[in-house]
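ARCHIVE CARD
Drawer: 12
Card no.: 0347
Subject: one protein chain, sequence and derived structure
Cross-reference: see card 0346
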Amino acid sequence: MTLEKVPYSLNSRKVSDATNEWLEKRGVKIEEIAELVFMLQSKYFPGLTMEECIHNVEQVLKKREVQNAVITGIQLDILAEEGKLIQPLQDMIENDEGLYGVDEVLAFSIVNVYGSIGFTNYGYIDKLKPGILKRLNDKNDGHIHTFLDDIVGAVAASASSRIAHRKQAEREAKLGGDPVKDDMEEQIKKEK
């Protein structure tokens, strides 16, 4: 009797759950990412709340492209911690080599989902490295977060961009009945 191989079928729920589980296992809390979002957007939107920031981080993490980047980056960091990468890749990732830019390229795949404002937010926060980014960037804690620090920064930048786009749409919707604005407002209501 021959066993028939079941064709592969993506299980979106498993990917989403794995993304959240691995962020937590690597010491990243949604609230810490939301703090970065708040830092990036609160001066532009004085009434911004942490709840809004958390919501927008969660919405970004629901995107398949984001989930793929998160679990890929975390896997590479773990393999580097275990010394399981080929040389010289092992040394480059282990030491977060400055001229190795694939970690940033993976982060760009996240911010690309949210447009050019995501890129500028990402560049700013990547240079500044506040909050959780400082902790993830610490090379003395025994963990390798070469990819994860950039991924977390990209998620925060994307959530910031998402807020900026939605706040602008809300402003425009208040000003009057443009069909494009009305459509955006309707989309915002559905996502809340």
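Annotation on reverse: Residues 7 and 14 are 17 Å apart (CA to CA). The chain has ten helices and no strands.
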